[in-house]
Amino acid sequence: MNVYGYRRGSIFWALTLIAVGTIFLYHNFNPVVRPWHIIAKFWPILIIFWGLSKLMDYVQAQAHPETVPPPLFTASEVILLILILLLGSLLSRIVLRPWQEWPAAMGIEVDDDFGDLFLDTYTYTQTLPATVKPQPGLLVVVRRGDVEIRGADQTTVEAVVKKTIRAPNETAAKEISEKLKVEIVEQAGRNLLQTNLDSLPEGGRNVRLDITLRVPKTTSAEITAEHGGIVLEGLYGDQILTARRGDVRVAKVEGLVRVHKARGSTVVQEVKGNVEVDGRGDDVEIAGVTGIAAVNGDFSGSMQFRNVAQTLRFASSRTDLTVQKLTGRLNMELGSLDATGIDGPLDLSTKQKDITLEDFKHSVKITNTNGDVRLWTAVAPTQPVDVTLEKGGIELTLPTACNFQIDAKSRHGAVDCDFAAPGLVLSKVGEAPSITGTYGKGGPTIRLSTSYGTIRINRQGLHPPAAPKPPAPAAPSPPRPASPPEGESQTSLRPGGFNRAV
């Protein structure tokens, strides 16, 4: 039995415990010493001593050939070495960095206030008046804090700056506040709100500036908020807003509104002009736009549009939408799109959405991969309707007095139609049931195509939506044929609507 090798390992770990205990004991007598900083900086010595211990075991085994030499590393020692490397590296990245850099050191993205949780908060307020030109331009860049800009009948810019400072005590906070300079200066024909945050300790990381400005209504603003929200209201002129980690709210603007987003929600209301939103973020709401509203990017929240007088465009990795003259509303989420009150053409290409379109008055073109489509109109269509699905059901409800030409096919599905005419052919047999022909005096072309779903053409008034009822015990299902006719699918769509998954 190789007793010597066993004792070598025991002595090594015993000496390690003694060294660590000595460091912490010395800290009790000398608080200036920081044990965790010493360990975080010098922990690789542990690996060196362990390697020397293994080397001494090897030399000792060579000097005693009569004993069985111990293995260089056992499986448990390999696992222990990996754990020491991981924990030691993590400890160094955390302890040897400033608190504010802990999340980044660990690959975590959180708010900057994370590192100041154990500091006290102190607030100071500063007012900055400034005279400007009749049609001023305003440039504001804020690293941390909210920006609120409101137009008023005045010829000056009034800024109220709320300084929120995190510091160990009030004396330190006052010192930072006195060093912090916020001023409005004229630069290249514009009014620039500038600060000296970069010259403060740690680059002003523990300072938040919430800025409220009252400006002339004719101000054109360019606002950037790195970590904060933006509110802008009552201005005439082009407005460019960038909010990387905060919400944006814009209202009552005459001119172009351009919003660049990376996170947070966006609300734009009552704009006499065009609206452009790009980037990514959460919810988007745009309402009351007299010009074009364009949204480009991947937004994970709900999309709400109302009263867009000209063109509404939305483009993402999943959806490409163009709508003309939205007098009603259009709501879109990850798995659904609902719209009502569209006076102009609609062109939609999307994936895996249940689509409900009511009260449309112009052409409709929809391409979808998987989902149900329900279309309803009280006005006889005068423009083409084209719906193409890879999988799902289509329900189209038309008024009684209408004229149309139809070409509807459901591969491996079923078809049904409330309208009947000599020129209308309803074929329910085969692998591709269809509805083809002409109803009335011709009229616009209706093309419907799907697979593994039912196409149903409803006559308005014959299938009113069912009134809400309290839950009741399930009733026995009506008798069914033993088997459907050849080629007819058993899949059917309930008259009056679909059950939609969100």
Task: Walk me through the topology.
Blueprint lengths: L2 H27 L5 H8 L1 H20 L11 H21 L6 H4 L14 E12 L5 E8 L2 E6 L3 E12 L2 H10 L2 E6 L2 E6 L11 E10 L3 E8 L2 E7 L2 E5 L4 E7 L2 E5 L4 E7 L2 E7 L2 E6 L3 E7 L3 E13 L4 E13 L3 E7 L3 E4 L4 E7 L3 E7 L2 E4 L8 E7 L2 E5 L5 E8 L2 E4 L6 E4 L6 E6 L5 E7 L2 E6 L43
Parallel strand pairs: 2-6, 2-8, 3-7, 3-9, 8-10, 9-11, 10-12, 11-13, 12-14, 13-15, 14-16, 15-17, 16-17, 19-21, 20-22, 21-23, 22-24, 23-25, 24-30, 25-31, 26-30, 27-31
Antiparallel strand pairs: 1-4, 4-7, 5-6, 17-18, 18-19, 18-20, 26-29, 28-29
Helix pairs in contact: 1-3, 2-4
Quick overview of this protein structure:
This protein is α/β, with parallel strands linked by helices and 502 residues long. The chain has helices at 3-29, 35-42, 44-63, 75-95, 102-105, 170-179, and strands at 120-131, 137-144, 147-152, 156-167, 182-187, 190-195, 207-216, 220-227, 230-236, 239-243, 248-254, 257-261, 266-272, 275-281, 284-289, 293-299, 303-315, 320-332, 336-342, 346-349, 354-360, 364-370, 373-376, 385-391, 394-398, 404-411, 414-417, 424-427, 434-439, 445-451, 454-459.
